[in-house]
Amino acid sequence: REAELKHGRVAMLAMLGLVVPDIARIPLPDFEAADLDFVNAHNRLIYGPGQGPMWWLLVFCGVIESFRFKELGLAFEKLTLENAGDLNFGKGFLPKTEEGRVQMKIKELKNGRLAM
Q: How big is the CA angle at 110 (ends 69 and 93), to the nearest 5 degrees?
């Protein structure tokens, strides 16, 4: 479940990344080129080892994963079915009832599967 949730979240964000750049651009010189699209963005936004916006994304993801490893232990010995995929982020958006939370988790899993 942990791996499926992570991959589903990445796939949902990737799908969003395919659509949003055609609608809106980040107002920075790196992202304003008219010929920058989802096909060539990866290669054009890496300028060299450790340089460019794609490296910022890698560092950001690495920080999130580091916090997850710290919470669960390097061998994932504290991982259970109840806390699989729980990053302790955004719990205020979940429904207040237990049944509502279960339904929301099922929806996230199904939307992730669809995006994959």
A: 65
AA identity, residue 47: Y
**Between 103 and 88, residue with greater pLDDT:** 103
Are 115 and 11 in contact, with CB atoms under 8 Å apart?
Answer: yes
Tell me, what's the pLDDT at 80? Answer: 74
* Residues 69, 78: Cα–Cα separation, whole Å: 10
The DSSP secondary-structure symbol of 113 reads H
Residue 51: exposed, middle, or buried by beta-carbon count in 10 A (0-12, 13-18, 19+)?
Answer: exposed
Determine the Cα–Cα distance for residues 105 and 91; give it in Å rounded to an integer.
Answer: 11
Q: What is the value of pTM for the model shown?
A: 0.69
- Distance between CA 10 and CA 1 in Å, rounded? 14
